[in-house]
Design goal:
heterodimer; A: mainly alpha; MetI-like fold; 2 domains; flat; B: mainly alpha; two-stranded antiparallel sheet; 2 strands; 71% helix
Chain lengths: 291, 328
């Protein structure tokens, strides 16, 4: 009797130990896989950066910044593409930012949970993730086809549309972080609502707003698809009224070409644009962390 | 305020209708600013509306010429002017879904690592590095995919899969095909590109689980994995699906990276290792060459409209699932 009880107890103990061991093993396996997944993701980033440095740095000569794109074999640079990218990105950000900030202000300060506010929020979120190539098609239909030609203006307009939803998102989020009591204090002092928003809320949220603008700029600086049908590309410097070159489009045209020096330029351009975009991203995170 | 007291003091005013409290303090500046903010809101709505209308308008000649058959036709011939959406829609959906199948487990692993496993000092730098993966321009993914990833897949995964699974009858999808550019390569690049979006969303929603739930489970003796599986995942299920849909939405419309590695062939092949195309890659390649007003241009715009509809539905589902907890 006693002996059988003991045996049964030992059996339970054994299954309990086995169960515990199995649970531990599953847990260890899951942790290991999660570590591996993270390592794999980081390895991809490392591989991209190493490839860019390895293939891009050898072509990094002063001529890249001083000469325009030329026929293969005659040693051109990317000067016109760099200028075109700066102009279109700058203009796109300049146009998109005020609109984005006003939409964000509307959502945070006026809309509340009204139907219109929710609709604007929904549409802005859709625009944030919508395929950028469709924005290029849209601008082609609006500006290129009716006005009879590709232009830097059209490229900048496409980038501006991409800037808006990014700025909307950060503006609304940042304004919502400003305590209501700050607004109440301002209103109580007799300030009208618009002064409260501009001089109290914007000022308090300045770092956050700036972060949004920087992130938007970084995003559009690397965009290729929306420029293909709007500013098209140009082999020389050009004004905003005609087809205009940009770094991403030049990379696209050169990367798959059969000429070694063009491929080299594409890699150097890729290195420049990636370092630029990543630097802006890191700077933006620095701003937001200061808060 | 004591209403009866004020009525007693100002009996004449008491009978007047209540005055909206804010009206007196609202000056011209306020009205202008409010108008500007509201117009900006309307502007966004009009913008999306006009994108849809103009894409449809541009695609109308193609829809008229081919009717519903546009969706079912595999033709794409600028010479005979026969166009259909079947191949590119197939390529878009297959490459995106395949990318999702690869990206979701990895992104879940990353989110699990970042929320539960990583030591404190590691969370921020690793999280930032994953986010930077999303900041790399898509054309860079294209070049890297074309020069590094595609040959690597061609030398390792393709021979392995085609010599094992590809030999099994009925698994023709794994059979080898010539060339490194393929739907499979495109989906690997897409998977890498959408990992950060899915992982960041999952991390954010995992962090919304009340700590007390997790601590109770740990207190009962649960392991990290059991807490993830039985507490965190059930609590965040809807948002996790929303994050996955967000990744799908991103993959469907990705253009430059896909154009570099998919091979750009308008043919449906039984093998995933054969080249194909997607809506976005076809539009990117042929739109600059299409003549203004031609049926080809209109067909490309019609494809753009289709892509917009597909992405819109996916992103709308994603947002509905995510909106209760976090905004993606």
């Amino acid at each position: 009797m006693d002996a059988t009880l003991q045996a049964a107890g030992a059996g339970h103990l054994r299954t309990a130990t086995a169960l515990r061991r199995r649970r531990r093993r599953t847990d260890r396996m899951a942790r290991l896989l999660a570590w591996l997944a993270t390592l794999v993701a980081l390895a991809f980033l490392a591989s991209i950066l190493v490839t860019l440095l390895y293939l891009g740095v050898p072509g990094l000569k002063p001529a890249v910044f001083t000469t325009v794109t030329k026929a293969p074999g005659s040693g051109g640079g990317l000067a016109n593409a760099i200028v075109g990218s700066l102009v279109q990105t700058g203009l796109g950000t300049l146009v998109g930012t005020p609109i984005g900030i006003m939409v964000g202000t509307y959502l945070a300060e006026y809309a509340g949970t009204s139907a219109l506010g929710n609709a604007v929020r929904f549409v802005s979120d859709i625009l944030l993730s919508a395929p950028s190539i469709l924005i290029g098609l849209f601008i082609y239909q609006v500006l290129v086809s009716p006005l009879g030609g590709f232009s830097g203006w059209a490229g900048a307009a496409a980038l501006a549309i991409l800037v808006i939803p990014i700025v909307v998102r950060t503006t609304e989020d940042m304004l919502r972080l400003i305590p209501i009591s700050l607004r109440e204090a301002s209103i109580a002092l007799g300030a009208p609502r618009w002064r409260t928003i501009v001089f109290i809320c914007y000022r308090a949220a300045l770092d956050g707003l700036l972060t949004g603008v920087l992130l938007a700029m970084a995003r559009v600086a690397g965009e290729t698809a929306p420029l293909l049908f709007t500013s098209l590309g140009n082999s020389d410097y050009s004004g905003l009224g005609s087809a205009m070159s940009s770094v991403p489009v030049t990379i696209y045209q050169y990367a798959a070409s059969a000429f070694d020096d063009w491929v080299q330029l594409a890699w150097t351009g890729a290195l420049l644009i990636t370092l630029g975009v990543l630097a802006i991203n890191v700077a933006a995170r620095f701003f937001i962390r200061r808060r | 305020m004591d209403v009866t007291a004020s009525q007693a003091l100002h009996p004449a005013e008491a009978s007047l209708p209540p005055v909206p409290a804010r009206t007196p303090s609202r000056g011209v500046g306020d009205r202008i600013f409010a108008l500007a903010a509201h117009s900006a809101g309307y502007f966004v709505l009009i913008l999306l509306g006009s994108i849809i209308v103009l894409l449809f308008w541009g695609g109308l000649p193609a829809f008229r010429a081919f009717g519903p058959g546009f969706l079912a036709s595999a033709a794409w011939n600028p010479v005979t002017e026969r166009f259909g959406a079947l191949v590119s829609v197939y390529g878009t959906i297959v490459s995106s879904v395949l990318a999702l199948m690869m990206a979701v487990p990895l992104a879940f692993g990353v989110a699990f690592f970042l929320t539960e496993l990583a030591p404190g000092w590691m969370r921020r730098p690793v999280g930032t590095a994953i986010e930077l993966l999303a900041a790399v321009p898509s054309i860079i993914y294209g070049m890297w995919g074309f020069f590094v990833l595609a040959p690597a897949i061609g030398h390792t995964i393709k021979p392995f899969l085609s010599s094992t699974l590809g030999q099994v009858p009925g698994l023709a999808v794994f059979r080898a095909a010539p060339g490194d550019a393929s739907i499979f390569t495109a989906s690997v690049v897409l998977a890498i590109m959408i990992i950060p979006f899915i992982a960041a969303t999952m991390r954010d929603v995992f962090l919304t689980v009340p700590v007390i739930f997790k601590e109770s489970a740990f207190g009962l003796g649960c392991t990290s994995w059991e807490v993830m599986r039985s507490i965190v995942l059930p609590y965040t299920r809807a948002s996790v699906v929303g994050g996955i849909m967000l990744g799908l939405g991103r993959a469907l419309g990705e253009t430059m990276a896909v154009t570099f590695v998919i091979g750009n062939t308008n043919r449906i092949s039984p093998s995933l290792f054969a080249p194909g195309n997607t809506i976005a890659s076809l539009v990117a390649l042929e739109f600059p060459e299409a003549e203004g007003g031609s049926l080809q241009l209109s067909s490309l715009l019609a494809l753009g409209f289709l892509l917009f509809v597909i992405s819109f539905v996916v992103l709308a589902i994603s947002r509905t699932l995510l909106v209760q907890r976090v905004r993606h």
